Every structure is written in structure tokens, then in C-alpha cells.
Amino acid sequence: MVRFVFTIAVLACTAPMHAAERIEADVVVYGATPAGIAAALAAADDGSSVLLLDATARVGGLLTSGLSHTDYHAFDGLTGMFLSFTKRVEQHYVDTYGKGSQQVQDSFRGTFGEPSVNLKVLEAMLGERKHITLERNARLQAVATADDGARMVSMTLKRANATEFVVCGEVFVDATYEGDLMAAAGVPWRVGREGKSEYGESLAPAKPDDQLQAYNFRFVMTREPRNRISVKAPPGYDRTDFVAALEALDKGKVRSVFGYPSECVFKAQLPPLPNNKYDINDVSLAPIRLSLPGANKDWPDGDEEARGQVFTEHLRDQVGLLYFLQSDEAVPQALREEAREWGWCADEFEDTDHLPPRLYVREARRMEGVYVFSQRDSEVVPGDARTVLHSDSVTFGEYGNNCHGTGHEGPRFGGVHTGEFYKATPPYQIPYGVLLPKVVENLLVPVAVSATHVGFCALRLEPIWASLGQASGHAAHLARIEKVPVQRVPVARLQSRLHQAGAGTVYFSDVLPGDVDFAAVQWWGTAGGFHGLFPAPQGGPRGRNITGQYFESYPNHAAELGEVLNPDLADRWVQLARDMNLPVEKLPAADGTLTRGEWVRSAFSLVR
After folding, report:
1. What's the burial of 207, exposed, middle or buried (CB within 10 Å: 0-12/13-18/19+)?
2. What interhelical angle do 34-45 and 462-482 show, nearest 10?
3. How many CA atoms lie within 13 A of 523 on its CB side?
4. Is residue 449 a contact partner of residue 369, using CB atoms and an 8 Å limit?
5. Which of 36, 317, 468, 473 satisfies CB 3.0 to 4.6 Å to 446 for a cystine?
6. What are phi and psi of 257, to 5 degrees?
7. How far apart are CA 294 and CA 274, in angstroms?
8. Ordered mean pLDDT values, 10 residues apiece, the chain (608 residues)
9. What is the C-alpha separation between 445 and 577, in angstroms, rounded?
10. How far apart are CA 305 and CA 161, in angstroms?
11. Gap between the Cα atoms of 22 and 261, Å rounded
12. Rounded to an integer, what distance in angstroms lies between the CA atom of residue 83 and that of residue 168?
């Protein structure tokens, strides 16, 4: 359990002289985002005591603050803790409404949970672990490090009642969207875009700049009269700020106020959420946008006041735009009446006037770490269906490089976002080094990871961040028990633990978590055994579209364990096994009847 010590801090754990309370834990996680929760769960499941801290009163980050329409493309791209979470969400709807209910269907296998349901499930998952202590409303004030800066020693935090306390741990995890703990610990970081030549990225600008991806709110709204709250004018509302939207509406590029996926102002994501609710988002490439490039520049390294101003301005702008479209008589009547059908959900965000308590921070600081994830890491290898091999992978992603824009040209309404891109890719592995500072040896960073701007735009999705958080939690525990810096954690042991927990490190469409061969196929696939097996599919990397942004399995990414192992592949696999120092003389020969699965199982048995 977490150990509470009410004394002045001793030498091993420095603290301000006025801070009398000290809390100790094996692993300290700052930021109860999905990544932070996943890290806490993983470390606790391994046996470490965990203190999970968050600066707000509501855990879950964006997953409980409006982003309920989860960003992924294929169901089999979900893995580990996040997959477990979605199954729990689906079970909630089964238990509450019945297996055949519309709510279960609308939950889309548990990936579309209402914010209140997501919160309930995450809190339940945390409450089941006796080794986790959760401290809300605890805002970071300072970090103490060793004289050489190589280790974090303690954190000083302030509660909502202004009392300070000190936290000491063996290993720390920064799971904030902004990388606040990382920055306070003196880890180098970056904000902005790299130039095209720095990492050879076709999606990067010609020259580096300080632009970062725009933010907006993810409102949750409904047209259900019994649960609908009318939209009020936000503080500071001035209709003259929105009159120019009328000209954009007159040009015929906007057919409705709410819609999907385009020709509208507010994107009501489809399919809808359970209980007739909708996750509302920015409309890509549209003449009227919710995202506000440039208005977020004070956020990444800003203090509480600066971020509060950014939050307030985004709220004033986006709620103000909606209020204008619903109420101003200058708005065409048909659009105004359509907009009035929508309102806030009476049973969501009840403590914050039914508005999300968090702004959608798509990008803030990015660590300059051991490995910098860039565009090339999500690109296919020539002649292969798969992307670049990372044998030190700790998870995979499959969303692709996605940026809602970093700049804006022209007027607020009718102008054009710049720096916007949407690149479809096959699934891509993510190496352990993106989590690691170059110097600080007891800190892991699963959200503000080490990546270029373009690379980060492939990693910035909650399912991926949760998987990186899970890897960080298991790595933190391993660093403790092995008594090594996080940079020297035995990656093979970390991968084995992840596979045991049902977390993938390479994508397969036909051997999924829970399959008896999951660990074996993950081990061999992460070593490279299935790279080069299939060519890139014609017609693009994704499978057949299901609905919206969701697709069937990625083609040419199956293990096909029942297929007979042909001599050419057998020779390649034996050579790979030899390179891995496996006793190849104990491997079965390809005799025309031996299957891939039989060979992989035999090889896996040699390392268990």
C-alpha cells in the first residue's frame, strides 16, 4: 500500500520546510489521463504501490471530457488496457439495458461510451486495485532532482485548499497532455514543427516554426427533448464576433449546422453514442471551424492563469458560435431552427454547467528523448504490407498521421487552415525509446512522447496513449525490481509482460488478445518473423469500410498459422532464430506438412 509519512522530509526526499506532509510510493504517476490510469493499473498489477495524481477533480482526461467517439480505425487495432476498458463499457450497457438493447448496439463494442459511463468504468478499474491511491486536485508546484539531474527525488504539489505536500517515489510517470512533470524535471522538450529536411518528412513544412496543432472542445450534445439543456450565451459573448459567419453560410458550402462528415459547422460524429447523444468535433477542411490555430500558443508552457485564458477564449468562441447560430435572427431561419434542435445533455458534466471540463489538447510539449518517432516510422517498407520493423516495440498504432491544422489564412470564417493533413497508413510499431528521457533515469513519458510534430500526429490518440501508459507502468515496476535506470529495462522482459497482459507490440488481424497463440505470435512478429510476408495491398492500406472512420481488418496482416510452412519462409525463420541465439537444432523441419503455427509454438517454447 502507499505509505503516508507525516514528518519533515529527510535527505532522500527533499521538501520545502513548510511542507509537513510527505507521501511515498514505489511508482508515482502524474496525470490521470487514460495513459496515466493505464500506467497505474499496470504497475499495481505487477506489485508496486502506486500514487496516481491529477490536477483536476475528474479522472480520465478527454475520455471522460467529451472525446467519446474513440479515434481508431479497426477493432483489432485495440489492445491491452484500452481493450479491457472497452469491454467493461460494453458490459455496463449489457447490465444496465440488456444484451439486445439499442444502447449496447450504439456503444460499438464499448468504444462509444457516454462520458459519465467512461468515468464510472475507469473509477471502478482503479478502485479494484488496493495498491493504487488516487489524489485529485493536486497541482504540481516543483520537482527536486539529484545534483546531477539524473534522478527525480520528489514532487511538491498543492491541493485545492492551498496546502502543500511532497511526494517521493522510486520511479515517476508523466502522463499529462502537456508534459508538465517532464519539463519541471529539466528534460529537454520541443513545441512546434520541424522543417522538412530535419527528418526527411514529406508532411513537414519547408522550414521549422513554432506552430502546433489547433485545439477545440469535444462537446456532448443531444436532440432528445427530455435530456436537452438549452445553450446560453457564454461570458463575454459579442454577436459582432460571429456576424462574418453569415457570409460563409451564404456561399453554399454549409448545408447544415450539425452534420457528418462535411458541409456543416459542428461535426456530430457517427455512429451516435448510446442514449441519443453525440460527440461534437471540428469539421476538417471546412469554411467554418471549431479548432483555432494560433489561439493555443500560450498553452504548452503556460502557467495555470495562461492556460485558463486559452480555455476561456476557446469556450467563448465555440459556445458563442453555437449560440449565435441558434438565436440570432440574421441566421437563415432553416439553419437556425435546425440548430435549436440541439442542446447540452442534462445528465453529463453536471458540475461544469454541462460543458466539458477539459479542452481537447491535441499537441503541446514533445519530449526530446532517446528515440524520436517521425513520419518514416509509420510508412510501409518497399515491397511489404507492413511498416518499419521495431524489435523494441512496446505497442502499435494504426490511426495514421492526422493534423487538424496549425495555422490559418484569411478571415476567421471562410478562411483556410494550413498545416492540415490526413495520411492513411498501415499499423505501425512504437519503440520503447519514445518513452525515455536521455538523462533522467527514473522517469517515463507516455503522452508528451519523443516525436516530431508529424510523428506525434500519428501517436496522439487515446488508445495509443493508453497503450504507451501501460508499457510505462510495467517498465516502471521492472526498473524498480531490477534496480536499473528506465533506459536499461530489459525490453524482452517488458514485451513478455505486455503480451501476458494481452497487450500487443505488433498488429495481427487473426491472432488477437485471448487467443492461445497470442503471446507466441506477438513475440515472433515483434522479432520480425512476419515482416516481408505479404506485399502492400492494392487499393490502400485499410480494409473495407464499416461506417464513418471505422474499417474491417487491415489486409495482408494475418499470421495464417494454419498455412503449411514453405521451405523459403522456413529458411528465413531459421536464420532469424539463429540471429536470436535460439538452439535451432531443436526446431522442427519444414517437411511439407508442418504449419506456421506449429513452428512458431515450437520456437516460442525455447524461450519460455
Report:
1. exposed
2. 30
3. 23
4. yes
5. 468
6. -75, -45
7. 34
8. 36 57 97 98 98 98 97 97 98 98 98 98 97 98 94 97 96 98 98 98 98 98 98 97 94 93 96 97 96 98 98 98 98 97 98 98 98 97 96 98 98 96 97 98 98 98 98 98 98 98 98 98 98 94 96 98 97 98 97 97 94
9. 33
10. 17
11. 51
12. 31
Helix (H/G/I), strand (E/B), else coil: 179 = coil
Cβ(51)–Cβ(484) below 8 Å: no
Amino acid type, 440 = V
Number of C-beta neighbours around residue 18 at 10 A:
8
Q: What's the Cα-to-Cα distance from 534 to each of 120, 386, 559, 570, 592, rounded to whole Å?
A: 43, 8, 10, 15, 20
* Nearest residue to 30 via CA among 356, 310, 360, 443: 443
Q: Evaluate whether 189 touches 365 at the Cβ level (below 8 Å).
A: yes
Residue recorded with cell 512504437:
430
Percent of residues in the chain assigned helix, strand, coil, to nearest 5 = 30, 20, 50
Name the residue with cell 517515463: 444
Task: State in Å, rounded, how far the first CA of the chain is from the last one.
Answer: 31
Which is it for strands 443-444 and 164-174: parallel, antiparallel or unpaired?
parallel
Where is 477: in which H helix or E strand?
helix 462-482
Which of 593, 464, 603 lies closest to 529, judged by CA?
603
Residue for cell digits 517521493?
168
* Ranges of each domain in the chain: 220-352
Cell numbers 489524489 correspond to what residue? 135
Kindly report the number of other CB atoms within 10 A of residue 412's CB atom. Answer: 16
Q: Which residues of 328-348 are buried (b: 16+ CB within 10 A; e: fewer)?
A: eeebeeebbebbeebbbbebb
Distance CA 241, CA 166 (A): 46
* Burial (0-12, 13-18, 19+ Cβ within 10 Å), 87: middle
Task: Supply the DSSP string of 415-466, one letter for each residue.
Answer: -EEEEEEEE----EEEEGGGG-BSS-TTEE-SSS-SB-HHHHHHH-SHHHHH
Residues 132, 48: contact at Cβ < 8 Å? no
Taking the C-alpha atoms of residue 249 and residue 265, their distance in angstroms, rounded to an integer, is 9
595, amino acid identity:
T
The letter for the amino acid at 277 is K
